[in-house]
What does this fold into?
Amino acid sequence: MTAALRLGTRRSALAQTQSGLVAAALEKVAGRPVELVPIVSEGDTNRASLSEIGGQGIFATRLREALRAGECDLLVHSLKDLPTAVPDDLVIAATPAREDARDVAITRIGRPLHELHRGARVGTGAPRRIAQVGIRSPRAEVVDIRGNVDSRLERVATGDLDAVILAAAGLSRLGGDLGGLHREDLGLSEWPTAPGQGALAVETSADAPRSCVPPSPRSTTRTRVWR
It folds into this structure.
């Protein structure tokens, strides 16, 4: 029996969903079973503000340690969570087709972000989004939050928050059900998002056996693109 490829992933529902999509695609192209290996990163356990602990690599570091230790053969990251510089001993082996790169504002009553009343509470944990809310809706109060997609939507549904800012790609991969809440798509021209938002990255060791690397017509390049 062919040994399964071990695909390392964060434990969150969104990460597991994204990694499941990658695993299914890998099974088709590699002809081997793929099993998910859940890994807890610092970003999953440290509930401090991203602006305090720093977002650069906070979700990727522990996963990369697991790959180097032989706990898995490949990793799945949200591309926007990766530091710009790729370590010499690792390689981005594939980038599946990118999802919607936009951010969205989720509200209870469907009022656009720029029309929210004075003191409206808008939740987001990303420093970039905090700054953008301050420009787009200067009368609102920004609430620095962490947590998964469902918990953030729940805080809007219960009235704890008037709005939250989320990535469109994450909502789409989770099925897009808002439970009666309203979605405002924020155009990229006036609301630019993080580089790589909406894209996934499959990472492995630079010296990984060819059987662990997704096939690509550009196999001679360091970064292989899988579409």
